[in-house]
Amino acid sequence: MVSLVRNLTDAAENEKNKSYNRPIELYQIFLDGETLYLANYKKNIEFYDEEGNEQTYEAAALSRGDISTSQELSANQVEVQIDNVARDMSAYLESYNFRGRKMRILKVFLDDDLEVGDFEDRIEMFEGVMDETAIDQKTLTVEVITQIDIADHQIPRRKYYLDCGFEFGDPDTCGVEISKENDTKVTGQVDSVKEDNKTKLYISEITDDDDNYWAYGYIEVLGETRFIQRNGTEDGTGYIILDMPFFIDVTGEDFEIIAGCDKTFDLEDKDNGDEYNHGCAFWNNKEYFGGFLSIPEARDVSS
Fold first, then answer.
1. Is the pLDDT of residue 151 over 50?
2. Contact 46/113 with Cβ under 8 angstroms?
3. Over pLDDT 70: what percentage of the chain?
4. What would the pLDDT profile of 39-53 be if each residue is shown by its tens digit?
5. Per-residue pLDDT tens for 269-279?
6. CA distance 85 to 253
7. Residues 6+ apart with CB under 8 A from 196
């Protein structure tokens, strides 16, 4: 578990104790194959990466809650919110698996010349793995949790989630293949956009008798993606409902639709008898379920 004891350099200690200072928080998000460097500031910040190499931290609108501690699990957690107005985070969330990946939060101080200090002057505020994510038109919200203290609890080196943590269609972890032949991908051209509801696209290639077959998936048009909330047919023509509209008229534009998954195990939604899940049971993929039907209790087996 990350220690909360921070050894500060003299320069960082002096800045921290000033009656007036200008702290900035920097965020390092370690995804598979790419690391995001973000600064909670109005312009880019030049600092260093985790190895001490020069790195630009891109200006971003970020916020976080207080760092809370769970006495039972000896774990700390914090909720981080990242601006998604330009849909940048939606694209990253679609391309990368955030869950189980590491995030680190640093604090640095601007000096009188509006520059930050040396690599050694950083203050490590928090480090943990990302768990629950939620996204809407404006914000990506991520729960970040430190690992359980394995000095006190001997458990297998795996993170436990009720829902599946694997990426849908990943050939290494998921049993569902993304392809036209497998009915998990469809391409074509957008027929039209509903005039009084820009989130509704009419697409003749959507011919499935099963309403909401493409729910939890996404559509890509002109390099931009939108998540599909539901689909159906109307007067013999297929349609999809998006989480938010495209900013231009996409009528006649080429599209690609990829199916999606809600990460559940059973088909029936036990909390809503008339509703059905859209996870492993729906896709006949239970044997590849990457979650747990219940969370095992941590036990001390050292004695």
1. no
2. no
3. 77
4. 999 899 999 999 999
5. 555 555 578 88
6. 23
7. none
Using the predicted structure, report yes or no on whether residue 185 has a pLDDT greater than 90: yes
Average pLDDT of span 246-253: 92
Of residues 132, 137, 130, the one with CA closest to residue 90: 137
E-state strands within the chain: 22-31, 34-39, 45-48, 54-59, 62-64, 68-70, 75-83, 102-110, 123-135, 139-145, 185-189, 192-193, 200-202, 218-221, 224-234, 237-242, 254-258
pLDDT digits (tens, 9 = 90+) for 73-120: 445 788 999 987 667 787 887 778 888 889 999 998 887 666 777 888
Task: For residues 151-176, give the mean pLDDT.
Answer: 67
Query: What is the pLDDT, as a whole number, of residue 120?
Result: 86
Give the whole-angstrom CA distance, residue 207 versus residue 268: 24
228: buried, middle or exposed (CB in 10 Å: 19+, 13-18, 0-12)? Answer: buried
Q: Scanning the structure block, which residue is given the tokens 């993304």?
A: 178
Q: Is the pLDDT of residue 256 over 70?
A: yes
What is the length of the chain? 303
Q: Give the largest Cα separation in the chain, rounded.
A: 72
Structure tokens at 56: 């630009």
Q: Which residues contact 66 (CB under 8 A, 6 or more apart)?
A: 78
* Residue whose structure tokens are 């914000």: 139
Burial of 25 (0-12, 13-18, 19+ CB in 10 A): buried
What residue ranges define each of the domains in the chain, with the CATH number in brackets?
10-145 (no CATH), 185-258 (2.40.10)
